[in-house]
Design brief:
about 220 residues; Diaminopimelate Epimerase, Chain A, domain 1; 9 helices; elongated
Length: about 220
């Protein structure tokens, strides 16, 4: 995954400070991770290329006269073709397939074409995977929680450990997500993550107030992948 250049050193300080402040009043442990994208989507690019190639082949099969006239015009009226040979259909489809795949190397276009449900599923899968590595079962009270932001997909996820899941409904994190997304859209992703952390801290303090038996076990710093 490529680095996220939207996050400057000051953004890291803002988020880290927000995590430290939020954890002063709760046994909850907040981990923050930001990445440019959650997947390379190579399989999606190949699938789109195949769909375009098959669609083009279908159009040629349904309207062969259009293409025969084009070939005849290119040949100066001397092509003599009355039907498209199979090799031209294969060549046409291959050109469409690999041509589209080359175009989709340009990520901004690819991300426009990826269906939102696929983006949502890939971001969630990546968030859960990172949660298992960085947060899951790594605190004494099972009170770890991950805030994950994927910039190119314009999506964020909150994944919590079992003790938090048992007490807090997923919908409760709505204010945190709204605060995050609004500020990211405004061009201040660091402040967005800090605001989400603040909102998460309020919820965690209500359900898991600070005790003396729960040390700081997870890093407060923003992790950038």
């Amino acid at each position: 995954m490529s680095k996220v250049n939207q996050f400057k050193p000051d953004d890291h300080k803002i988020v880290t400070s927000a995590v430290s402040q939020a954890e002063k009043s709760t046994d909850g442990e907040i981990v923050t991770i930001v990445t440019s994208e959650s997947d390379h989507y190579g399989d999606v690019a190949w699938a789109i290329s195949g769909l375009v190639a098959l669609t083009a082949l279908l159009v040629v099969s349904l309207f062969p006269d259009i293409y025969l006239n084009i070939i005849d015009w290119l040949a100066g009226g001397w092509s003599g073709m009355t039907a498209l040979p199979y090799w031209t259909l294969f060549a046409f489809s291959a050109m469409k397939f690999f041509g589209i795949r080359l175009i989709l190397i340009w990520k901004p276009l690819l991300f426009i074409l990826i269906p939102p449900p696929i983006k949502k599923a890939r971001v969630r899968k990546r968030a859960v995977s990172l949660f298992r590595v960085t947060t899951d079962h790594r605190t004494v009270g099972r009170t770890g929680i991950l805030l994950y932001l994927s910039m190119h997909e314009h999506r964020a996820e909150i994944v919590a450990d079992e003790a938090i899941v048992a007490k807090v409904e997923p919908s409760i994190w709505g204010d945190a997500m709204i605060g995050l997304i609004d500020l990211v859209r405004a061009g201040t992703p660091g402040k967005g993550m800090a605001e989400a952390v603040r909102q998460m801290g309020i919820v965690l303090t209500e359900h898991f107030p600070k005790t003396d038996q729960n040390p700081n076990e997870l890093p407060d710093r923003l992790i950038e992948l």
